[in-house]
Fold:
Amino acid sequence: MLLSVLLAGGGGILGLELIEILVALVGMLVVLVVGRIVLKIAWRLVTIAVVVVGALLVLAQFGLL
Structure:
């Protein structure tokens, strides 16, 4: 599709209208912000899981579990 846009020419940068570029950039921004939030939550969950499993391992080593 991009090749046909480039070959077709037309107005704008590389045949794209400025509004299309703006929409694409805003879409990328939304994906990055959502991804950053999801990764922040994932890091917390992984950290909690490591602490819990480590504590269970220590308790099991001492025969308390």
In short: DSSP finds two helices and no strands in the chain.
